[in-house]
Amino acid sequence: MSAAVLSEVRKLTSTRLWWILLLCMAAGVAFMTGSIAFAVAFADELGGADAQAASPDPLTTVRTIYGLPVSFGYVFPVILGALMVTSEFRHRTIDTTLLLEPQRAKVIGAKFLAVLPFAAIYAVTGMAVGIGVGAGALALAGEPTLLDSGDVWGSIAMGTLALVVWALVGVGFGSAITNQVVVIVALLCWTQLVEPILRFALSFVEPLQGVARFLPGAAGDAMAGGSFYTTTGGGDLLAPWAGLLVLLGYAAVAAAIGWLVTFRRDIS
């Protein structure tokens, strides 16, 4: 198994894609976190007494800001995970991979294990950039950063874990849909358009309000303990441990579908 994992690591590091995607994540998280964090931090000054009365408590504000890398940055680790599988089908290296390692369960298992260290790099980088920008905005506005709070660091740790789990979801999704272009377009559409709209839309339909909590993005936000969508009317979140189970469930279901429709059939 170790040889299969090492082979997957070498495949990923043999191209520049993984670190270019990492740089894009850092830039994207910095921009989104900076834009929203400064708007939230300076809301009182811009909105006057009404904004001060409506503003959430400091802990909720801090969790929301420090959770922005999870709310908006998860698209990068999930795409990285998907590319672990789809790149092989796009460039037809999957044939050689399966000739050298005919045990297909070991191949897909190696991909899940090999993505973990890269997912950890993405997660730490994204959270570090987001916290740096967010804490800077709060400090400039004279608001508490709460970086000395154990509860805040617990939320940060769970947010980091959420980004790691998102990479596993990506591997599973890439196993289920092996067309690289389709996967990337589908992930971008879902993460940037479909789910945000669904979360807001479902919050207005009383019988379906609870459904939004089980969407994958909402599950990741739940792990971080705060969400931009929740503070702006996108519904409530699950408990952090429940969010972890839901997100792992998405990864497991996607991997099972991939095993049934891709890795159990003839690949040629």
Could you please describe the fold and organization of this structure?
With 268 residues, this protein is mainly alpha-helical. The protein is built from 13 helices and no strands. Helix 1 packs across helix 8, helix 2 packs parallel to helix 8 and helix 11 runs antiparallel to helix 13. The longest helix is centred in the middle third of the chain and has 37 residues. 44% of the residues are buried. About 3% of the residues have low confidence.
Order of helices and strands: HHHHHHHHHHHHH
Beta-strand level of the residues, as a percent range?
A: under 5%
| Total beta-strand segments | 0
Given the structure, what is the number of helices?
13
Segments where pLDDT lies below 50 for 5+ residues?
A: 48-54
Amount of helix:
over 70%
Roughly what is the average pLDDT, rounded to an integer? 86
How would you briefly describe this protein structure?
The protein is mainly alpha-helical. The protein has helices spanning 2-13, 17-41, 43-54, 58-66, 68-73, 75-90, 94-100, 104-140, 150-176, 180-202, 216-224, 228-231, 240-263.
